[in-house]
From TrEMBL:
InterPro entries per UniProt: Mo/tungstate-bd_C_term_dom (IPR008995), Mop_domain (IPR004606), Transp-assoc_OB_typ1 (IPR005116)
Mop domain span: 2-68
Record keywords: Molybdenum
Official protein name in the record: Molybdenum-pterin binding domain
UniProt keyword S-adenosyl-L-methionine present: no
Lineage: Bacteria, Bacillati, Bacillota, Tissierellia, Tissierellales
Organism name: Gottschalkia purinilytica (Clostridium purinilyticum)
Length: 69
């Protein structure tokens, strides 16, 4: 796999919460860190994503915001 994004974090799919159109996919990248992403159900099927499968969280962003209460 070659993509321009440099933030590619390997892990395993921990959970998939399917909806009618989209799903929330959780990737466990370390013992205490899980990254989640909302993707289409079409992408879930095309990539054949299953709980336990290896996957990458690929992060490409022009800004990351941090806030406090």
């Amino acid at each position: 796999m070659k993509v321009s994004a440099r933030n590619q974090i390997p892990g395993r799919i921990f959970k998939i919460n399917e909806g009618a159109v989209n799903a929330i996919v959780e990737i466990k990248v370390s013992e205490d860190i899980i990254i989640s992403s909302t993707i289409s159900m079409e992408s879930i099927k095309e990539l054949n994503l299953k709980v336990g499968s290896r996957a990458y969280a690929v992060i490409k962003s022009t800004s990351v915001m941090i806030g406090i209460e």
